[in-house]
């Protein structure tokens, strides 16, 4: 017999379930309906917008993560194409992928491909992550050597698909910045948007990362290794699409909460720079991607595509409340400092 007393809400099981699913429990990951400011609308629904602002503000001041549904972000075709073209590239021969190695595509730029065991997003660990990555920087696209693009049709097709996805994602990103400003009760709801005016252009720092976590055998995994180590992101507003479970978010009690894919949603969070910018009012949640426990699941690959928001390179980030809790710092300088900690250092 079910012990109704074991539920925090007594006999009202339905209320308990809804509380968990809708994120009114401060340690759960909320599922928030974005219909009030969907990309299918030219302007927000004024009656529903205040509730949306409150929900997002609550999520970002507690857990730091939430699911967003009814975004109007892109048709299923655009999302599916970006994932499929990425997978086709990642499952091609290593020789073909290496034509796009970071540093070769655009000298001095992060644009391009990195292999497994080249990054560790948790700099406190000596073990590197079991993932491959392709960084797409739209402001760098015109610098890509045409001969490189011609050298790999699979790489070229992926870049085109990522560019289309980026164009859709930019509008969602900016609308989220508006809502965050409203939640913080800033005088100008476009305050953050204005700091990202070069998004996708020269001087911008925005990027997409398409990640591929290859299937592996248990014998190939180092003890304590993750697909992606524990970390918080670096910049402003971030959102991702994913195809398989593995993502976990650490709540305020230090417990890890699974954040599996939910059809029709993106997962949204903020980075360290936004937390710093808001004098810690908003939370940059720690997260990781774990390896499946079973041998069968371990051999299956996983994908995600992440839209990383970052203020323009030359913007100076100062605490918006005037508290000077953190000293001013340039957006580009902060980003560069963080990157130094994640890439594998070559032995001398």
UniProtKB/TrEMBL annotation:
Source organism superkingdom: Eukaryota
Signal peptide: none
Domain Fe2OG dioxygenase: 210-311
Organism: Holothuria leucospilota
GO molecular function: dioxygenase activity; metal ion binding
Cited InterPro entries: DIOX_N, IPNS-like_FE2OG_OXY, IPNS-like_sf, Iron_ascorbate_oxido_reductase, Oxoglu/Fe-dep_dioxygenase_dom
Keyword annotations: Dioxygenase, Iron, Metal-binding, Oxidoreductase
Entry-linked Pfam families: 2OG-FeII_Oxy, DIOX_N
Coiled coil location: none
Keyword presence, Ligase: no
Family: Belongs to the iron/ascorbate-dependent oxidoreductase family.
Protein name, as recorded: 2-oxoglutarate-dependent dioxygenase htyE
